[in-house]
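User: My collaborator sent over this chain with a note saying "see what the structure looks like." That's all I know about it. Can you take a look?
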Amino acid sequence: MIDVEQQYSESTSQEVKMNAEPKRHDEKLHNLVVDFAIRQILQDIENPKVLRIRISGRDGRRVTSAVKYLPQIQKMFSIIIQVDASSCSNIRAIEENIAAHLGFSTWEGCRPLLENTNFLIFLDDIHEGIDLYEVGSVWLNSKNIQKIVCTTTYEEVYRRMAVDLEIRLEDHLLSWELFCLNAGKIVHSKGFQHTSTDVVGKCSGHLLAVVLMARALKMVSGAIIWDSASCILGLSHRVDKMKDRVLCNALTFVLGHLGSAKECVKCSAFHLGREGINKIHLIMEWIGLALVSTLDEGEKIVQDLINAFLFEGSQDGCSVRMQDEIREVLVYMFRLEINTHFLLLGGRELSKAPNEEAWKEASEIHLMNNKLSELPKSPNCPHLYTLFLQKDSRLRVIPPLFFLHMPMLQILDLSYIKIRSLPQSLFGLVQLQRLFLRGCELFMELPSEIGKLSNLKVPDLEGTELIRLPVDVGKLTNLICLKLSFYGDDNNRKVSQSNIIIPQNVISSLFQLEELIINVNPDNEPWNANVNDIVK
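Assistant: Without extra context I'll predict from the sequence alone. Here is the result:
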C-alpha cells in the first residue's frame, strides 16, 4: 500500500518579453506557505484547548499581519494587538509592551481589561529564552476567548518552547514537494511553474488531492490542460466540507481524462470492499459487464489506475483496493453526478455539432479538430466551464447569442479558426479567465467590449495579427499573462489609419501582469514609434 506521507520521507519577428524571474516563483511558493498557515490558524483558533500558538519560519510576521485583519478574527476578538517582542528579554518586558500598545502606562492598569475580554495578542520575533507558557499564565481567563500567537525564527525556540499548536512554515512546503515528486520534471519547465503553484494552492493542503493532480498532470505538456486543472480545482458546488470539495474537484479532473477507464472506476467504487479484491476477479467482472474485452486490456487499465493513485496494489501484485476516502467521494459523485460530464469529441471529423441536450449536461466540451461549419444558436450550458473549439477550420461565424447561456465558462479556445469577429454574447462571460485566439488569420481587431471581461487572466493572441489594441484592455486588471501579435507595413492587409498600436499607459495599468509577449515585424514603423511608450 502506498501512503501519501511516506512519499514525502530574432527570425522574422521582434519579440518583447517580460517573463517572471526565478525569484518570482520563489515568492509565489512562500505566498502559498503563508496561505496554508493562515488556513491552519483559522481551523484551530476556535478550539478552546488551543491558547498558545507558535509560528516558526521566515514569514511568520506575514502570517500574523494577515490574520489580524480577517473578518472572522475581527468578529471573534474585542482586542487584537501585534507586538514586536524582539527586544523583550523577559515576560515582564512583554507585558509592559502589551500595556503600552493598549494605552496604559503600567501593566497593572492593563491587566484587568485583558482578564475580562476576548483578546488575540501577536508576539512577533519572541526571544529564544522566553517560555511562552509563562506568558499569560496568571491573567488568562478561561471564561473568555483569549489567544496568544508568537512568531520566531530561532530553531532553539522550536525545540524547547511548549505550546498548544506549532505551525512550522517549512512543513507547509510539503504539498509543493509532494507535487514535484509525483509530477516530475514538468513542474520546473518554462511556462508551467506559475500554473503548477496555482494547482498546489487550490489543493488547500489536501495531500491526497495533491498526489492525484500530480499523477494526472505528469508528462502533460499542454498548457490548456494545466489551466483547466487549476480552474476545476477552484470550482464550488454542493459539497460543503473543504477537503471533500477539493478531493471531489481533483477526482472530477482525473475522471475527465481517463477515457473508457472511467466506467471501470465507477464499477469499482460501488463494488470494491475495504479489503480489496483479487485483480483477476476484478477484471473478469469488468469483462462480464462489457467494460473491457480481454484480460490484457484489463491488466493495462488496472496498472493505469494504480499509476493514477486511484488504486493501490498489494505487495505481491495479486490484489487491488481503493482508499476509503477516494471510494466514498467517488460514490457520492457518481450518485449525484456532480460536474463529471465531459463531452470529448475532439478530432473525430464531425461535420455537425452535438444536440443541445448534450451541451446542457456538460462541464467540459472538446470539439477541436473537427469539420464543423455551424454551431448551435444559443445552447443552454449552465455547468460548462471549459470549451475547446480550436482548429475547426470550416468554422467562420459564431452565432451572436452562442455564449448567452454559459454563465460559468472559464476557459475558451477559439484558436486557428477563420472568424473575423467575436459575438457580443462572449463579452457577458463574467467568469471567463482564459481566452485563446491564437493563429486566427482573418481576425484583425479586438473590440472595446473586451474590457467587460473583468476576471480575464490570460488572453493569448499569439499569431493573430492585430491592427491595434483597444484602450479598454487597461481595464483588465486581473491579467497575469498577455500574448499579442501585430502585423507590419509589408502585409497585404489594409494598414491602420492610426499609428498608435498600443495606447499609452495601457500596459502599465496591468499591475498584476507577470508575462508579456508581443510579436511584431521589425520593420513595422508604427511599432518602432510606439515601443518606448510601451516598455517604459
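A starting point for your reply to your collaborator: The chain has 18 helices and 17 strands.
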